[in-house]
Amino acid sequence: MYLFAFGINHNTAPVEIREQVAIAPEDVGDILRDITSSGAASEATILSTCNRTELYCGVDRADGETPVSWFSENYRVPSVDIESYLYSHRDEAAVKHAFRVAAGLDSMVLGEPQILGQMKDAFARAHKAGATGKILNRLFQQTFSVAKKVRTDTAIGESAVSVAYAAVSLGKQIFDQLQEQTVLLIGAGDMIELCARHLKEHSVRQMIVANRTLERARALAAPLGAQAITLREMPARLSEADIVISCTASQLPILGKGAVERALKARKHRPMLMVDIAVPRDIEEEVGALGDVYLYTIDDLKEVVHENLQSRLEAAKEGEQIIDTHVTKFMHWVRSLDTVPSIRALRETADAVRDAELERARRRLALGEDPEQVMERLARALTNKFMHAPTTALRSAHHGDDAILRDTVRKLFNLREHD
Q1: What is the pLDDT of residues 323-357, one digit of tens each?
Q2: Burial 371-393 (b: 16+ CB within 10 A, else e)
């Protein structure tokens, strides 16, 4: 059995190519049945996310149509040669790739945890479609185990490595119960949306989205169960906020020292965390001088992100070592499968010889022959039959094969060297 892992990802293909070969969950079953029924693979699993579309395949033969050529033929992007974006891994490299992907070592954001859940979903769909077997079942169970070990035994997921996540992480450091705090999000662009998602993942229940246009604020706030207000309303609501995260396209500050002072007075000087990730800045620099305000700019966060990324890179090196060890173990199991037919044939031959000689012995006993002589003849016959094939092979071996065959026989029969 041969293993293949191939596809495209954020490193090899731009988004306009990735989105054209993205596979919807409802289509996965049909595609898996296509690839297995075509003979290109005997087992297959599809992983399709915003950053990658990959196939993991078990193949009985290395010749003939490979899964890679099948995919290229059936899923060619119009007017584009998809093969120029494809990467392909076989056997050990395929196993290592699966382990690295699940552990977040091949992700756009190093160490991100979402990919493991996505791989579990991908395997569950393939298993439900009947497209997996002994090889992929074992591969993915091992993949999930290795990914868990990497995340448990290293610091790969402990530090924030995106500005949006770093902003939320600051809130966790300052407030013991982040989910109990009220968060004011100023702006409605991609960065604020990403911050909002992270806050939602941390179970923050009270969020207010302030934007220049109320319609855009509502579009972001509605799925989060948040309130939507305009920027004109924002100063009056500022005192409600324990955390303020701002990222607008304004060319001038939208929050001054006076507005923050009034909010602090209304809060009876309970502390506020203010994170300004806009360029140019949304919050006046003088706000940072207020005693009850923790003000961070995007440069502060970038420094944190850089330090954390270095920490994750060190953790990734440890993760690679864990992965290499488990790749070796997995491939040892795969190669052991090749010996199963030989072991089965050897046992069947031995059983046939045993049954034949036992039947002869029983007939002699039934004729009244001496049991001791029957036993001796049985033992001698079994020995001769079992030794005939290896003895004949040793005697007829060509000169160049003598040493190899002799060493193999000694290993098989656990023989000691004699002078």
Answers
A1: 999 999 999 888 887 666 677 777 888 888 888 88
A2: eeebeebbeeebeebeeeeeeee
CATH of 163-304, one of 3.40.50.720, 3.40.50.300, 3.30.750.200, 3.30.70.330: 3.40.50.720
- H or E segment and range at residue 111: none
Phi, psi of 219 (to 5 degrees): -60, -35
The rounded Cα 203 to chain-centroid distance in angstroms is 25
Right CATH for 2-153 from 3.40.50.720, 3.40.1370.10, 3.30.460.30, 1.10.10.10:
3.30.460.30
Confidence of residue 407 (pLDDT cuts 50, 70, 90): confident
Bridge partner list, 293 = 272
Q: Is 50 a catalytic residue?
A: yes
**Cα atoms found within 13 Å of the Cα of residue 80, Cβ hemisphere only:** 14
Beta bridge partners of 48: 53
Q: Which of 50, 57, 195, 247 is catalytic?
A: 50
The residue written with tokens 């009947």 in the block is: 130
* Strands 52-59 vs 206-211: parallel, antiparallel or unpaired: unpaired
pTM of the model: 0.64
* Confidence at 419, pLDDT banded by 50, 70, 90: very low
**Contact in structure between 68 and 110 (CB atoms under 8 Å):** no
